[in-house]
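Checklist before submission:
- one chain only
- standard amino acids only
- sequence pasted in full

Submission:
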Amino acid sequence: MASSPPLRTIADIRHLLEAHADLHALLSHVESLGLPDCWIGAGLIRNSIWDVLHGRAIDVSRLNDVDVIFFDSSDTRRERESDLRNRLHEHAPGIAWSVKNQARMHLRNGDAPYRDTVDAVAHWAETATAIAARSNRGRVEVMAPHGIDDLLNLIVRPTPPFAGKMDVYRKRVLGKNWPARWPKLTMLMTWREAYPDPHSSFDRIDT
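Returned file contents:
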């Protein structure tokens, strides 16, 4: 994929998502739902970038699922998420849609209640996975609570909220077997590897 533009900034990621017809279409389907604070996160964005950085064409058919996330504390029924997933299947039946209201996900994850979707994404396991995008009137927006350096440098690192959940992080990362598909990845499997110096905070948001 030698003709692909370099990926160095969050603007480059945004341009990639806008230019790729399949990715932009998925974002547009989600925008059509009109949900509050709604994004596509995790694998769709991360995998697409890792594919580009490995010189491969982006193939949305290889995604295990497409993670649609939104935040609405006024209605956290799982039935609502199922209804939304069915609506997305009507738009794109070949996609394994997953829809989760982040206003309830702290309960599953053992965290304090999240303030919004950005806060929820900041509590995901890996810095490279903590990224999401949305279409806003056709223009793509990208948010990355822990920045994009690890993502673009092919580094798998736990996020600060996982300091006390490294067993969960390791089990998840080992189960994914990412290096088989992306051999250039650097896998940081211990907290000391991930943060060899006294660690203050990754608490920044790029949009």
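Reviewer check: DSSP finds ten helices and seven strands in the chain.
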